[in-house]
Automatic annotation (TrEMBL):
GO terms for cellular component: cytosol; endoplasmic reticulum; nucleolus; signal recognition particle, endoplasmic reticulum targeting. GO terms for molecular function: 7S RNA binding; endoplasmic reticulum signal peptide binding; signal recognition particle binding. The chain crosses the membrane at residues 185-212. GO terms for biological process: SRP-dependent cotranslational protein targeting to membrane. This is Signal recognition particle subunit SRP68.
Length: 682
C-alpha cells in the first residue's frame, strides 16, 4: 500500500518535444498526499512520533542504498546535494524525508511527560533548525527541478517549517506570522492550480502571474512582506473565495488535503496575531482552538498548554483562600491551588458554551459538537477537582497532630467535594436535556438511535442520588451557617422536581408497554408531585431565602425549573386523560373480544392455525421476527431439532463358519532350528 501511494505521488511529467525540457526534466511530487499517507500509516494517526521517525530513517536507508548515494563505507564522507546531483525524483525524496525525520524527532522530544527541560529544549530547537535547513533546500531544488505545483507545495512546506521554528523559540512573532501567512497563500494558489479546469481559476492564476511580473519576478519568500503591506490581500481573498465556491472541481483528495492544511494553519496565525497584539482572543477561544486535531497542531497545543500552565502558576500565587457558602478555607499547597484554578478555567469555558448548547439542543442538529465539547469540559472539571482532593488528603495525612490545620483541610476537602457534586449534577442535567431532545424527535428520524423513556428514568435516578449525596455532605457539619441551610433546602426542592420528572417518564415507559392502568396511576402521582414541588418553589421565590442561595442556584435556574414543572403538570394531566380514555375503550371492547374468542374455541385444537417456521417458507417474503413494538419469539427454526429415523447398515451373521474344516498349515509354518546339545534332551 505504501509503495503504491509513493508511486502514485511521484509521477514524472511527460516531457514535451523541447530541447530545454529534455536537458532539464521537470519532476512532479504530490507533497501533501505523500506526507499525509506516510504520517497516517506510520504512527501519527495516534500521535506516535517515535514510530514515524523510525519509518523516516528506514525510508532514507532504502533510498540511499537504491540510489547508491552512500557516504563512505568506513569514515563518513559528506556528499553534497545540489541541482546537478538531482537526476531523478528520488533525490528530492531524500531531502524531504530528512526534513521530516528531524521534525518528528523534535516533536518526539516535545511529547515528554513532564515537558522538555532546558537541555532537551535546546536539542529540540536544534532539530527544528535542521528540519528548516532541509526544508529550504527541498524548496530550492523543487524550484529548479520540479513543476509549478511541486514548487508551490515545497515553498509552502518550507514556510510552515520556518514558522514552527520561530513559534517554538517564542520570539519574532511577526516573522512567524509572515511565514504562516505565506504558507496559507501558497496553499491557496496550489488549490487554484488543482482546480484549474474552470475559466475563473485560470484567470486567478493568470492574475497571480501578472502580479509576479509587475513586482519584478520577486522570489516566493518575498510574498509575506507584500501580503502584510496589503498588495497581496486581494489575491489572497480571491484564492480563498475560489477555494470555498469551486471545491467540486479537480482531484477531490488533493482538495481535501489543501483544505486541511489551511485549517491547520489558521490557529497558529491567530495565536501569532494575538501575541503581536493585532487581535484580542479570550481564554475560552484559545482553548477551543486548541481542541482542533491534526499533526501540524501538536506544537501549537503544547505551546498553548505551557502558556496556560504558566498563567495558572502565576495566578496560584495570589490564590490563598477558597470561598464556599460563607466559609473561607486557606490553601497552602501550591499544587492544590493550580488544580483548583484548572477547574475554574474549565467552568468558565463551560459557561461560554452553554448558550450555544441551548441553541443546538432545540435545533436540527441536537447531537452537535457543542454537547460533546461541554461533556468533555465536565470530564476535565472532574479530573481537576479529583486531583485537588488527592493533594488535600495527602496534606491531611502529613498534617500530624495540628487540630487547626486538620479542620481547615477537612473543610477544604468538603468544599471541593461539594463543588464536584454540583458539577456532576449539571453534567447529568445536560445528559437529560440531550435525551429529551432525542425522545421528542425519535419519530422524525428513523436512522437515528432511538431514545427510550427508561434511559431518562435511569438518569433521574442518578440525579436523585447525586442530590441526596450533596445534601448529606453539606448538612454534615455541626455549626451550620444560613447559606448552608438554604443550600440544603435548595437540594430538597430540586430532588422533589427530579422525583416528579422520574415518575412521569416511568409512566411513559409503562404506557409504551401497553399497561394503561399502571401508567394512569403513575401519571396521577407525577402530577401530585409536580404540584407539591410548584408550591414549594413559589413559596421559596416569594421569601427572602432566595438571596442566601443566589451564589449556587441562580434565580434564572429556579424560574426555568418552575416553567418545567408547570409544563410537566399539564403533560401529566393530558396523558392521564388519554390513558383513562384508552382504558375505558378497552373495557368497552372487552365483551366483544371475549365473545369472539369463545366462538372460536375448539376442544380438539384442530382449528388452531399452526404458523410455519422460516426454514419451511423460504419462498415467502414474510417477517419471522415480528414487529419492533411487540415482544414475540422469532420463529426461524425448531431448536433443538426433532429426532428423525435414519437407515443403517445391514447385520450379516456368519452361520456356516463353525461347520467348515480348513486345511492344516503346520507344514508352512516356520520352525525353530536347534543345536546338537538341545537334541540330546529331546
Amino acid at each position: 500500500m505504501v509503495k503504491e501511494n509513493e508511486v502514485a505521488a511521484m509521477e514524472i511529467e511527460v516531457p514535451k518535444p523541447n530541447n530545454s525540457d529534455q536537458i532539464n526534466p521537470r519532476y512532479s511530487i504530490n507533497v501533501l498526499q505523500l506526507l499525509k499517507s506516510a504520517q497516517m500509516q506510520h504512527g501519527l494517526r495516534h500521535g506516535d512520533y517515535a514510530r514515524y521517525r523510525r519509518y523516516c530513517t528506514a525510508r532514507l536507508r532504502r533510498l540511499y542504498k537504491s540510489l547508491k548515494f552512500t557516504h563512505g563505507r568506513g569514515k563518513y564522507t559528506r556528499r553534497a546535494m545540489n541541482e546537478s546531483t538531482v537526476t531523478e525524483v528520488r533525490y528530492l525524496h531524500l531531502v524531504l524525508y530528512t526534513a521530516e525525520r528531524a521534525w518528528s524527532h523534535a516533536m518526539e522530544k516535545r511529547q515528554l511527560l513532564d515537558g522538555p527541560n532546558a537541555k532537551q529544549r535546546i536539542y529540540l530547537i536544534g532539530r527544528l533548525r535542521k528540519a528548516v535547513k532541509w526544508a529550504d533546500l527541498f524548496s530550492r531544488l523543487c524550484a529548479t527541478k520540479g513543476d509549478s505545483r511541486t514548487s508551490l507545495e515545497a515553498e509552502a512546506y518550507a514556510s510552515c517549517m520556518n514558522g514552527l521554528l520561530l513559534f517554538e523559540q517564542d520570539r519574532n512573532w511577526d516573522t512567524a506570522l509572515k511565514n504562516f501567512i505565506s504558507a496559507r497563500l501558497l496553499l491557496s494558489l496550489l488549490y487554484s492550480i488543482i482546480t484549474a479546469t474552470a475559466l475563473t481559476l485560470e484567470w486567478c492564476f493568470s492574475l497571480a502571474t501578472i502580479f509576479f511580473e509587475k513586482m519584478g519576478h520577486l522570489p516566493a519568500h518575498a510574498l509575506p512582506e507584500l501580503l502584510l503591506e496589503g498588495m497581496w490581500l486581494g489575491l489572497d481573498l480571491l484564492c480563498r473565495a475560489v477555494y470555498e465556491e469551486l471545491g467540486k472541481y479537480g482531484d477531490l483528495e488533493n482538495q481535501v488535503l489543501c483544505r486541511e492544511r489551511v485549517e491547520e494553519l489558521e490557529p497558529s496565525i491567530r495565536y501569532c496575531r494575538h501575541k503581536i497584539g493585532e487581535s484580542n482572543l479570550k481564554t475560552s477561544e484559545l482553548l477551543q482552538i486548541g481542541e482542533m486535531e491534526g499533526p501540524a497542531l501538536d506544537l501549537f497545543k503544547a505551546k498553548l498548554e505551557a502558556a496556560m500552565a504558566e498563567a495558572r502558576s502565576q495566578q496560584a500565587a495570589s490564590l490563598t483562600e477558597f470561598h464556599w457558602l460563607g466559609h473561607r478555607f486557606p490553601i497552602s499547597n501550591a499544587k492544590t491551588r493550580v488544580a483548583i484554578l484548572k477547574g475554574w478555567h474549565s467552568i468558565s469555558l463551560s459557561e461560554d458554551l452553554a448558550q450555544e448548547l441551548e441553541k443546538d439542543l432545540h435545533g436540527p442538529a441536537a447531537d452537535s459538537l457543542s454537547a460533546e465539547k461541554k461533556l468533555a469540559v465536565f470530564d476535565k472539571i472532574y479530573i481537576t477537582y479529583q486531583e485537588a482532593r488527592s493533594f488535600i488528603r495527602s496534606d491531611l495525612a502529613s498534617a500530624g497532630n495540628a487540630d487547626s490545620v486538620k479542620d481547615d483541610l477537612n473543610g477544604l476537602d468538603k468544599a471541593v467535594g461539594a463543588v464536584l457534586g454540583q458539577r456532576t449534577i449539571e453534567r447529568n442535567q445536560l445528559l437529560v436535556s440531550i435525551a429529551k431532545s432525542k425522545l421528542a424527535r425519535r419519530r422524525e428520524d428513523k436512522n437515528e438511535k432511538v431514545a427510550k423513556p427508561e434511559e431518562l428514568v435511569r438518569l433521574y435516578d442518578l440525579l436523585l442520588q447525586n442530590t441526596a449525596d450533596l445534601s448529606d455532605l453539606v448538612s454534615s457539619g455541626r455549626d451550620r451557617k444560613p447559606e448552608e441551610v438554604a443550600f440544603s433546602e435548595d437540594c430538597v426542592l430540586r430532588s422533589m422536581a427530579f422525583r416528579a420528572q422520574r415518575c412521569f417518564y416511568l409512566a411513559k415507559s409503562y404506557s409504551s408497554a401497553g399497561k394503561q392502568t399502571e401508567a394512569y396511576a403513575l401519571y396521577c402521582h407525577a402530577r401530585s408531585l409536580a404540584e407539591n414541588a410548584l408550591k414549594k418553589f413559589q413559596t421559596m421565590m416569594d421569601t427572602d431565602e432566595l438571596l442566601c442561595s443566589m451564589e449556587h442556584f441562580l434565580d434564572a435556574l429556579l424560574v426555568a425549573m418552575t416553567k418545567e414543572l408547570k409544563t410537566l403538570y399539564n403533560e401529566c394531566r393530558a396523558n392521564s386523560c388519554i390513558e383513562h380514555a384508552t382504558g375505558i375503550m378497552e373495557d368497552e371492547k372487552a365483551p366483544e373480544n371475549l365473545s369472539k374468542k369463545i366462538s372460536t374455541i375448539s376442544l380438539s385444537g384442530v382449528d388452531k392455525k399452526v404458523e410455519k417456521f422460516l426454514i419451511e417458507k423460504l419462498d415467502v417474503y414474510e417477517s419471522a421476527v415480528g414487529e419492533s413494538n411487540v415482544k414475540s419469539v422469532p420463529r426461524i427454526g425448531v431448536f433443538p431439532p426433532a429426532f428423525q429415523s435414519t437407515p443403517r447398515n445391514p447385520i450379516v451373521l456368519d452361520l456356516a463358519y463353525n461347520c467348515i474344516d480348513f486345511p492344516s498349515l503346520e507344514n508352512r509354518m516356520k520352525k525353530d532350528r536347534k543345536g546338537f546339545i538341545s537334541r540330546l534332551w529331546r
